[in-house]
Structures are given as C-alpha cells and as structure tokens.
Amino acid sequence: MDKKSKIENWGIKELKEGERLIRKLKNFFAGIGLAFTTAIFVLGFSILILWFFYFLRQLIENRIDSNVTFSLSLTKKLESPAPAAGLPPGQSAAMESPVSVSSTPQPDDGLIYAGYTDLFSGVGGLSQSETTMYRDDVATAMMFPPSLEWSEKSEGATAPDFSSACIGGSCLSAKGTVLTLNGSPLKLPIAGDVRNITADTVGNGWAIGVVIKEGNKYAGYAYRFDGKNFTPIFQNGKAFDSQYEGQWGFGGTADDFLAVYGAYQGKGYRVRGNSVQDISDLFDVRVMKGGIRPGIIRAGSGIHTAWYLFNKEKNNRAVFIKLFQNGTADIAGEADILGTAPVSFSYLVVIKSYEVGLRKIGVDSFPFLLSVYVEKAGSPQNWNVTDNGFKIPSGPVSVTSINLNNYANTEVPYLIGLTSKDFSAGNADISFETRNTDNGKWEAVSLGASHWFSDPHGAALEWRMRVKPGNNPEFTPYLGSLLVEYKVKRL
C-alpha cells in the first residue's frame, strides 16, 4: 500500500473512530439528560408532596385550634337542658365575695377557641388542696355526702321472690323468653330474636320489658299490660338500640315510674302519664357495675319524691343508688348510698319503703325508712335503713380547678362561659368565679354568661364554685359536669 492510500485509510479509520466517539458522547449526554430530567421531576414532585402535607398540617392545626376540647371522661351522656344564664330561679343566690369586675370588652379577632369538660369521674381537673366539697365517685358528681342510718333487724331472713309480679290474685311471670299470666303463656306484642323478658308491677298494672337481638345490636321494647292488652310505652314500643345486652326493670306508680335498662352502659326513662323523659345519663358504667337486673322503689310524693335503684340479680354486684329531686318536679341528681353501709354486702335489695314524716324539717314525706334484704358472706339478713338526706357542712365548701389552659405561649383574655346540663343549687347559695392568673383575683361570673378578664394578658384559666349550705338536709347542691369554654391569643 502506497503512502497516499495509507493516509486516506488512516483518515477513514480516524473518522470512524470519531463517529463512534460522537455517538458515545451523544448517548452519554442523552443519559445525563434523562437522569437530569428524572431528577428534576422527582424533585418537583417531592416539593409538591411536601407543600401538600404542609398545607394539610396547617389546615388540621387551624381546625384543632378552633375546636379543641379537653375532657376528663368519655362516658356520661347529658340529655337534660342547660340553664341559659345564671343559676336556676329560686334555687340559689350569689355569695358575697371580694372579686374583681370584668374589663371593657375588646375585639376578639385572632383569638382561638378552647374548651374543657370536667365530668368529675376523677380529680385530674381539680385542685385537691382547694376543693373541700364531697365528690361521689360512683355518681361522678360534686354534692354533699349522703346521710343514712343502718340498723340490723334479724338474721335468718328469707330472700324475696322476684320470679312473679302479682296484683291481687293475678301473677305475671317472665322466665327466659316466656311470659305467663297465672301459668298461661301470653303472646308477646313483638316478634323476633327475643333474648329476655322482664315483668314488674307499676301501681295497679304491669310493665313488660322485652330485649330483642336485631343485627349486631340489642333493641329494648317496653309495654304496659292491664291483664288483657299490651300498650306501647314508647313509640312503636321501641325505646333504644344498644350494643350491650341487658335487662329491663320498672318501678313506681301507674302515672309516674322509672324504666331502666341494666346493661354495661345503662339507659333510663321516667314515664309520667304519656310523657317519657330520657334520663340515661344517670345510668353510666359506674352505676351499672357491668350490668344488673334493675329493681326500683319509689318513696315520697310530689316534689318530695326519691327513687332507689338496686340489683335484683345475685351476681356479687350490689347496687344501691338514690335518685333525688331536690324539691323540684324532676330528678336533679343521684348519689351512691351503698357506700354508707357499715359493712360490705354481696347482695342488697329493697323490699319496701315507709314515710317517717314530720321529722326535722316539717314535711310529710321525708325522711324515708327502707326495709332491705342483704347477704353478707353468705348470711341473709334484714336491715332498716333510714334515709336522712345529706350531711350539711358546718361552713362554706368549694370546688376549685387547676389551670386548664393547655396552650403554650398564649394569653387568656376571654371566657366564653361556664355551662352545665346537670346542675342543681339544692337550697344553697352558690357563686361561680374564674381567673386567668395563678393566685390572682377571682372574678365573678354567672353560668352561661361570657366574661372579659380585667387583665387580658393572663396565661391561666381556672374556675371556682363556692357553696354556702342551706339548712334543709333533704336537698344538696349537685354538679355533675361543667363545660369551660374560653379563647386564647397566641403570643
């Protein structure tokens, strides 16, 4: 090969090498471009995701800031109406107290809502050193301590028979899922997967309770029975649906009786004529003790009526609860009176009640004498229990909270209000106060009323109820819950 050919061939060879190099570079930079594009896309998508979550977090935080409510308990359902403002008429008066007055209202732009509900199921929201009022751990309420006298009558007593409910010579019996009148089976007014039936006397008639499994829930039906006909107590006979299986119990007079469903989470109703009032908030898990067969005895009359709840079933879950009216037409509260017994009982039922009358306070229906059958360590006994109402403290008592403001770096300039759906003054003088500084001046406030603090820069939120007792042991102040609503300003 001559020199010229070698040069030409060399050029062709180098050209081919150059083309291969260019192709490699193109592929390399194309790869870089794809990777760079992918990286840019991933980065952009990541930024978008981060922005979305940041926006979502801000939205959630703002939502929480505007709606957060802290609660001590989840269990109490409150159905009765709350007072619109102040204390119930004719039941209370403000105590004299050196308190500050509210400052001039100011705009609330930028303030954040907060709230706290104390159900008094514990003492977590209370200043124990400053709270001197009695707290009922079963009823989960603040009140005066119950006052009862217990006296043993005799040993060798016979347990009452609850298998039949008799009026005159006619006896209604409920055993399992069969209802009989004088031994003859009756057709139930409702069909379905019946789990249990109960029958009790209410005055000159009977009340029948039927529990039916409907889907994954238990439905409660209740009827009046006059010996021939069933009449629904509730619309279409049905009172409720519950996730817990239980049994009905009835007690009272024909025109005024209680219907109680004794499940893990109980339910209750007061029936006056054709009127039915839901009082289920009184039959919470602590009262029900896992589920009972309710027994109910009514004592007194009119505004001096008391009700006693107990457990007919021998399951080592003795219950003795008093429901009282505080001199009103409605049930105002409840108290655990089993805790007043001098000894522990595994079983307790009330046989009957007697009116003592004309004692201490000059009314004809109080105090009440109850005849009870009990079992202690397997030994049956009869006891007399005198219900003297409540122990009146020798001087003023109070309920005082801890600092309820859980927001850091905030001021509390404004109280939306203190409200309660189960409050009764019970013949005592009661005042409510609040403050937004630790150890600062208390400022007077009425239930349901808003309040601007005199110092808008205080960082705390506390409330206090002061009670000056009356002189009537039939009545007690009663506070079953308190909702504290306020607004904070972030610093």
Structural commentary:
The protein has helices spanning 3-67, 285-288; strands at 69-71, 112-118, 134-136, 141-143, 146-155, 164-167, 170-175, 178-181, 184-185, 193-202, 205-214, 217-225, 230-232, 238-242, 248-253, 256-261, 267-272, 275-278, 294-301, 304-311, 320-324, 333-336, 347-355, 368-376, 379-390, 397-400, 410-419, 423-424, 429-435, 443-445, 451-452, 462-468, 478-479, 482-490. The protein has three domains: 1-67; 70-136 and 393-490, no CATH class; 146-390, Neuraminidase, CATH 2.120.10. The model is unreliable at 1-15, 54-104 and 357-364 (pLDDT under 50). It has a five-stranded mixed β-sheet with strand order 1-2-34-27-31. Strands 10, 11, 12, 13 and 14 form a five-stranded antiparallel β-sheet that branches. Strand 10 and strand 11 (205-214) form a beta hairpin. By secondary structure, it is mainly beta.
Please give a quick description of this structure.
With 491 residues, this protein is mainly beta. 14% of the residues lie in helices and 41% in strands.
What's the topology here?
Layout: H1 3-67, E1 69-71, E2 112-118, E3 134-136, E4 141-143, E5 146-155, E6 164-167, E7 170-175, E8 178-181, E9 184-185, E10 193-202, E11 205-214, E12 217-225, E13 230-232, E14 238-242, E15 248-253, E16 256-261, E17 267-272, E18 275-278, H2 285-288, E19 294-301, E20 304-311, E21 320-324, E22 333-336, E23 347-355, E24 368-376, E25 379-390, E26 397-400, E27 410-419, E28 423-424, E29 429-435, E30 443-445, E31 451-452, E32 462-468, E33 478-479, E34 482-490
